[in-house]
């Protein structure tokens, strides 16, 4: 049994889980903006969905600190949702 490979796989799974959870929460906020916001919220929602995809890809490439870019987009989407909805 290769314990080092097991540890790397586990760390990768935990990293993917953190990034995926933050990305899904951001998508939910964008859906709220689409449903309850006006034109500005719809435009910001689309921009934030694109930013979420990019931040998720960057986060996956970063490794252990990969949750930071999606979290920044999530915070930005939350602030914009509060302002536009």
From TrEMBL:
InterPro entries: Cyt-C_aa3_sf, Cyt_c_oxidase_su4_bac-aa3. Residues 1-34 form the Cytochrome c oxidase subunit IV bacterial aa3 type domain. It holds the Pfam family COX4_pro_2. The chain crosses the membrane at residues 12-36, 43-61, 67-84. The keyword Transmembrane helix applies. Keywords: Membrane, Transmembrane, Transmembrane helix. The keyword Transmembrane helix applies. It comes from the Bacteria. This is 6-deoxyerythronolide-B synthase. It comes from Roseibium algicola.
